[in-house]
Structures are given as C-alpha cells and as structure tokens.
Amino acid sequence: MTQRQFIKVHGARENNLKNVSLEVPKQKITVFTGVSGSGKSSLVFDTLAAEAQRQLNETFTAFVQGFLPSYGQPDVDFIANLNAPIILDQKRVGGGSRSTVGTYTDINPLLRLLFSKVGQPYAGPGYAFSFNTPQGMCLECEGIGRTVQLDLEKFLDRRLSLNGGAILHPDFKVGSHWTWKIYAQSGFFDLDKPLEQYNDEEMGLLLHGAGNYKVAFTDFNLKYEGLIERFTRMYIKKDVTTMSERNRAVFEQYVTQQVCPVCHGARLNAAALECRIEGYNIAELCQLETGRLIEVLRGLSDPLAVRVAEKLMERLEHLLDIGLGYLSLGRETATLSGGESQRVKMIRHLGNSLTEMLYILDEPSVGLHARDVARLNTLLVKLRDKGNTVLVVEHDPDVISIADHVVDIGPKAGIHGGEIVFEGRYPDLLEADTLTGRFLGQHLPIKGKVRSPTGWLTVRDAARHNLKNVTVSIPTGVLTVVTGVAGSGKSSLINNVFLEQHPNAIVIDQARVTANSRSAPATYTGIMDDLRQAFAKATGASASLFSFNSSGSCPNCNGLGVVYTDLAFMEGISSPCEVCEGKRFKPEVLEYRLRGKNISEVLEITVEEALEYFTEKKIKPVVQALFDVGLGYLKLGQPLSTVSGGEGQRLKLAGELAKKGSVYVMDEPTTGLHLSDIGTLMKLIDRLVDGGNTVILIEHHLDVIRQADWIIDLGPEGGGAGGEVLFEGPPLELKGCERSITARFI
C-alpha cells in the first residue's frame, strides 16, 4: 500500500486522548470500539470528522462559510490524506412539520413525477403534487394537514379588565412589551372595564382589529392588530416543531388543533387529490408502508409508469434493506428516533455514485433487533465496496466482526483511557488482552430462577399506531423486558399507552439532560449546593461566593471560563478567559480552600477521585451513586453539553437508586454501553428491583433480554405486520414461541 492509502493522525489530544497517533486504512471498514468514555468519539468525531469537515468548509468562500456549521480546529499535531466526509450521526433529523421520510430521502420527487406523467385526470407538473408549494398545498392548512385555532376561552378571562389581566397569555401580560401596550394605548378601550361588559363593536376591535389603524408610540407608529390576527401571525404561522420547549408548552395551552376539515390531513389541494393511479391518489400512497407501496408499484403496466416506478422501487427497497420497511413516506421526520434518523440519512447516500468519500457513523446498530443487524452490515459493506472509507463507532459484536480493521481505545474510561490498546483484525482482537477482547466471547446466561410478581399493571385495549387492540398485564416487583423488531409496537405500547394509563411511572430516557453551558454533574445532581455550604462552613465566607452563577463568578467571562468572540463572516472562536484562566471564579474566591483544594480544583476532579476527597454525609452517597452507574470518569464540573445520551440516562438513573416503590420505564438503556458495562447495568437494575421497585425496559440487547424476569414480545414484524403480543412469560419459555423472531436469537 502506498502512503496515501492511509489517513494519518499524529498527536491527537482532544478531551482525554493521550497524544494518539495512528494510520486508518482507506477504502476499508474500520470500527472503533472501547468502553464508554474511553475516547472513541473524541478521536473519530471531535478529531477526524471535525477536521475533515473544517477543511471541506474552507474550500467555500468566506460568505458561504457564514452559513455553514462551525468546526473548530481540533487539538492534534496533524492529519494527512483526509477524504471529503459524510457524517451520519444520531442527531434527530427534525426539519419541521413539512419534512417527511419521503421529502427527506428525495423519494417524493419521483412519486410526484409518476403522477404528473400517468395520473388521471391530469393535474399538472410535479410541483402540483407537492404540499410544500402554493400550486399543490391545501390552502386551508397551507400543506400541514392540521389546522390550529386560538382558543379564546383559554386565552381570555372575560370577568377581568385589560388592566386586571384579562389576557392570560404570559407574552401579553399587563404592562409588558408592546404586545400589551398596543391595546392599552390604542384609545379604543376602557382599560378598567371587564371584557364581559364589552359591546359587539368593542369585542370586534379587540379580537379582529381596525383595518390599517396605527397606534402612536414615542418613536414610531405600529399597526393595530386584533388579538386573533396578532396571535396567528406571531405563533400559529410559525412551525411548532421549531419552537423552544417553553414556547411550545405555552403555545399549546392556548390553542386547539384538529385535522384540516378541507383536505382531511392529506395536505394537498383538491386537484392533486383527484388525480389517481390504480385507484390511489398520491397522499394515499404516501400513507402506505414501504412494503405495500412496492407491491402497488410492481402492479403498474403503463411503459412510462414502469420506467419511473423502477427507479422509485430501487430507493424504496433501500428502506426495506435497512430495516425501515414499516415506515411510510408520509411519516414526519420529527417523530423518528435517533437510530431511525441515522438509518434514514444512510438512504440518501446509497443511491449515489460518489466514490472515495469518508463515511463516519455513530453506533448505527442502535434501535436494531439482532435480526436487522445483518442487514445493516450488508449496507456498510456496499458503501465500502463502492470505493469509500467507512469509520464506525460501535459496541455491537456483530458489527465489529465485519470490520477490515479494528481500533480499540482504552484501557478504561476518562483519565484512565485515551490510548490505543489494540489495532488489527477482528480475529486477533478476540485473542487480545483488552476489555473488548475479553468480553466479545462472553454472554450472560438465560435466567432460570426468576422473581415472583407482587401484583400486575394492566394495559387495556391499546390501539395506538400499529397496536391491534392489545391488552397486556405487566408484573410489579420484577424486571420486565419488552422486545420485538424495530417498528413492532414496543414504544407505542410502553411510552405511549402504558404511560398514559399509568402516569405515575418514572421515565429514564435518553433525552439530553439540561445542556446549557453552566450545567454540570455537580449542578444536575444537586451536590453543588452542599459543596458551597461545605466551603462556607470551612472558611466562614458566604456560600454565594462559591457559585459561578452568583457573586463569586469571574466578571470578565460571567463564570463560563471561556470568552466567545464573533468574527462576523469568519468562524467565531472561544478562548479561555484571560482573567480567571478558565477557572470561572474571582481570584479572591480561589484563596479559600477545603481540604487543600479550592472550588475550581474540586470541580476538576473526577467522580472516582471525589469518592476519596469528600467526607460530607450529603455529598458522599450521591457521588457513590454516580460511580455505581459507571460514570466514575466524569468530572464534577464537566459541561453537560459534552455528555452523550447514554451517559445522560445513567446520570438520571444515579438519582433514582435510593428510591423504593416506584415504577421505572427505560428505553434501550444499553445504548452507548460497552460489553463490559452491560453486567454493571444489570446489577444496578437488579438493585432497583430488589429495593421494591418495578422496572420495565424496552431493549434489543440479547444479554439484557436473557436476564429478565418477564418478557413481553411484540411482532411478528414491524408496522402493519406487527402490533401483536406474541409472548408473555419468563425468558426460558420464550424459545417455544414459533412466531417470535426474538426467540430465534435468544
């Protein structure tokens, strides 16, 4: 091999990496593995992917760069021979209400072309069948399929006057911004008169406006709008999926939503919906599951239709290959899980003819049943065989096994990791004396002696999404694992119906924990308050001094430790604060010490180090819980924005270990966990159950399924071919269930 057939990395030091150097072979599949927190993502995403993306962005003009994501230069001596990157991470696709599986994968344009050529009666060119163009959308709902109206009964308290707070929405509160003042200064109303005493003319002015009338303010005039017109413009016309959580929650308090009465949710106008092929209009085809849609397309006989349909089916079969055959083209991308989002992103690249690209994937097996991992592997091999370099961060043994080259990072996590402990072929890894090598061949046994239920929680008549009027009983006081292929109805049963019928259950999911620049494990777990009190007690100073959010914070960076500099059209930079040198506190605060360390130094220690440092009775148990859930490598002051979904879930779990009598629901808690961490997780879950709690897991990992007391298996397939309960009982009996795909793998 020539030197250019390797990507060369020299002296990588991002996060916990210890001056790592390596050569990654091109046009091969390289899998990076290692325990959680060992430095895999720091090497692959924060170093390789970031530098490749940064260099690619620099090929554009400075003007264009201003519209592209910013990637800082990673802490590395040099990287040579990079290819143009395509990063397939687990960030949700999003895209708002107008983004669907069909629009995101570019399958919809082919379907629109088909209708424009052979649909009857003729309705126009392709864009006439798009709900995102004025020519195709339903004008009533503007292509959304739902209409939203302001609910005046929730928005107004007619017993009150305007001065008394009759407008209940917080953005229109008395004395607030111009949103309230425009009504107070309009001259139309007696501000102390209750709304219920308004005549029709006054109420009309309040709700519907006064033509082009303008209200004079000190420096400008502002058009007077009625409450309905203003609220519609400010909120209803915006896409709710792009709002912040706070704004969305407030918005939903004051509106009613319903299926559009004109298009009945189809999003399109009458002309587009009247045009049909084989009895279907385009909206009806978009609601079919992928497998059924392919059957309809195969039945076409018109030569022109067949030619377009062949290209269309090629794209659709990629969805089947990747285990997403249960999705419809009309499914909104905002409703996809992280794993589904990543696989949908892959679809966009399987049909192209680009070669010598650098594909970077983050745990693509997440959310996949053991049966579907083989399909994923086929796709990874296809990407490689087209002449691309494929880098995968992964824990799944079946994905690791197809690698041409494996890089194992460790030996452990955090400060105990950051080194390459193995490089080579998969068979050699099996013989290697690393945590990954030792655990690849180990599997937990099927549990023989299971716990006895203390009671039952029943879910009745569940018919959400693809569930077929299911009634199922979940035992209390034991560990229940809900299994089945992707799309079989697990999340619909537990995350939707069960939680609605049993709202007191506690959900420990992988939604990112509060991730602003000031959040850290110390603040999230509550020990920061006790830490401040401990410093105050030891030094006699005020506790507020020891907060980087209060009087002790550095005035130059406001306690952030870094200063952000906007360079206009160039990439903005963050640099350590010159005043506090990144320590976040005023110099005088750092003079105070608790057992030899100042507050900044305490926040820099890891959870593992904190176990030895703290003697405080309130802090010690919390730190011990963090260590028990496998987060010993996290620093107490580490920003939560750097914590993965799996780490965030364990952070939440740490706060629950001492509780009793609760019902816990966890969605794929093994995500992001190394094989060696699975046993630790199971011990923690056993600890919860033995403490008198009920634990319900949605999980694909076979070792976790084998350790259940009770299994509920759904299927047999995904989508319309699923939604049935195939098995309820202990794991040893699952093997006898012939319809269960899970039974074949357990």
Task: Write up this protein.
- With 746 residues, the chain is an alpha/beta fold.
- Helix content is 34%, strand content 16%.
- The chain has a 6-stranded mixed sheet with strand order 5-10-11-3-12-13, sandwiched between helices.
- A hairpin with a 7-residue loop joins strand 18 (562-565) and strand 19 (573-576).
- The longest helix has 19 residues, at 303-321.
- The protein is globular.
- Residues 567-571 have low confidence and may be disordered.
Descriptive key words:
alpha/beta; 746 residues; 16% strand; 29 helices; 34% helix; 6-stranded mixed β-sheet
Query: Which band does the percent of strand residues land in?
Result: 15-25%
Find the structural class using helix and strand composition. alpha/beta
Contiguous low-pLDDT stretches (5 residues minimum) are: 567-571
Mean pLDDT figure: 90
Strand order of the largest sheet: 5-10-11-3-12-13
Number of helices: 29
Number of separate strands: 23
Shape: globular
Distance between the termini: 42 Å
Largest sheet: 6 strands, mixed
Radius of gyration: 29 Å
Percent helix, as a range, is 25-40%
